[in-house]
């Protein structure tokens, strides 16, 4: 089969890999319909996160082709969403709601498992990992939103949930990539009263407003902090959602959060130092990390199917699998918010 392969920083190509087959009785083989490039993939692409050369990608929607003998909840022909990690659904971490820390699970494109940016994937623990999509004949907009549920919408929701957003909250989102924009949507979904989006890009500002931002701050660093404090009468926000992972973004999140507030962080940290003294003396909390996307998909899927949210609008670049290099380049150069890659058909 054809699949995206990362060979070195800045080097993505499409090559041949063995077509996956059922190995364990709990496996399924999924034919990929849609996949995409993640900001997390870009850390590897830029050489800022370690990786083993080989397959890549962890977001995909596809159709079940084959299942092992112990798979009871899925059948050939089912349309499914794959979360960012596979899990058995039974270990203590899974039962505690942190499925991406499953003691028997793992991540796509690691340890001999296929990456999501290819024509097919062998999925371990298929019953626990995959989420079946009800119905058929879904619109193009719905399919794009289903793909967003495989990572970025769930990750944006994790930031909001970790920060304890509730009706009436005042929230600021640091980061205007797909995760940050989905965090805006998640904040609106949780009935935040005021949602401040930090973005300097006009197209991303517009999408943030469409998703529910009530205010946009086009500054960074100290200027952004000053602007948010001015908007909140010097108090700061109840919750800051850090969706970038850089030292500056983390510093801003801490600086704009009011005493007693919470920072929800989901940006993959690079060069970040936690300001423990600031947290102590201002009673600012910190919670988040890698999102347990599998846990959130069912409730978010219902909202997508009912038309209450449309996170698929974050995809503003599209190509096929053979164009994967340009999909990465367009995001790396900030010409695109998020790149969708068409692989197959339903």
CATH topology of the largest domain: Quinone Oxidoreductase, Chain A, domain 1
Largest sheet: 7 strands, mixed
The CATH fourth-level homologous superfamily of the largest domain: Medium-chain alcohol dehydrogenases, catalytic domain
| C-alpha termini separation | 18 Å
- Work out the helicity level: 25-40%
Over the alpha carbons, how many angstroms does the gyration radius reach? 20 Å
Could you report the average pLDDT, rounded to the nearest whole number?
Answer: 97
Low-confidence blocks of residues: none
How many strand segments? Answer: 18
- What is the element string, with H for helices and E for strands? EEEHEEEEHEEHEHHEHEHEHEHEHEHEHE
Class of the largest domain in CATH? Alpha Beta
How would you classify the helix and strand content by structural class?
A: alpha/beta
CATH architecture label of the largest domain: Alpha-Beta Complex
Strand composition percent? 25-35%
SSE layout and pairing:
Elements: E1 2-8, E2 11-16, E3 28-36, H1 39-45, E4 54-55, E5 60-67, E6 79-82, E7 85-86, H2 92-95, E8 106-107, E9 120-123, H3 126-129, E10 131-132, H4 140-149, H5 152-162, E11 170-174, H6 178-189, E12 194-198, H7 202-211, E13 215-217, H8 221-231, E14 237-242, H9 247-256, E15 257-265, H10 276-282, E16 285-288, H11 293-305, E17 315-320, H12 324-332, E18 338-342
Parallel strand pairs: 11-12, 11-14, 12-13, 14-15, 15-16, 17-18
Antiparallel strand pairs: 1-2, 1-4, 3-5, 3-9, 3-18, 5-6, 6-10, 7-8
């Amino acid at each position: 089969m054809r699949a995206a392969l990362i060979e070195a920083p800045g080097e993505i190509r499409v090559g041949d890999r063995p077509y996956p087959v059922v190995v364990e009785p709990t496996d399924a083989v999924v034919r990929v319909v849609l996949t995409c490039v993640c900001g997390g993939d870009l850390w590897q692409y830029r050489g800022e996160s370690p990786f083993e050369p080989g397959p890549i990608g962890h977001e995909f929607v596809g159709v079940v082709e084959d299942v092992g003998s112990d798979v009871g909840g899925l059948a050939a022909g089912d349309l499914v969403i794959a979360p960012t990690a596979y899990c058995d659904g039974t270990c203590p971490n899974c039962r505690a709601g942190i499925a991406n820390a499953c003691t028997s699970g793992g991540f796509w494109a690691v340890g001999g498992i296929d990456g999501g940016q290819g024509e097919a994937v062998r999925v371990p623990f298929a019953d626990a990992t995959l989420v079946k999509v009800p119905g058929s004949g879904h619109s193009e907009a719905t399919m794009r939103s289903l793909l967003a549920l495989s990572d970025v919408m769930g990750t944006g929701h994790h930031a909001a949930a970790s920060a304890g957003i509730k009706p009436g909250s005042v929230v600021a989102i640091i980061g205007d990539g797909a995760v940050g924009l989905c965090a805006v949507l998640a904040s609106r979904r949780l009935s935040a009263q005021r949602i401040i989006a930090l973005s300097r890009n006009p197209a991303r500002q517009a999408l943030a407003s469409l998703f529910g931002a009530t205010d946009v701050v086009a500054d960074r660093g100290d200027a952004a902090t000053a602007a948010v404090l001015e908007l909140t009468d010097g108090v700061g926000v109840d919750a800051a959602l850090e969706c970038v992972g850089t030292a500056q973004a983390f510093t801003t999140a801490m600086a704009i959060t009011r005493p007693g507030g919470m920072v929800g962080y989901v940006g993959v940290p690079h060069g970040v130092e936690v300001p423990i003294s600031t947290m102590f003396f201002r009673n600012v909390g910190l919670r988040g990390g890698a999102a347990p996307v599998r846990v959130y998909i069912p409730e978010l899927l219902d909202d997508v199917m009912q038309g209450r949210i449309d996170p698929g609008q974050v995809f503003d670049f599209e190509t096929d699998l053979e164009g994967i290099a340009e999909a990465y380049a367009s995001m790396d150069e900030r010409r695109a918010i998020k790149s969708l890659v068409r692989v197959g058909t339903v």
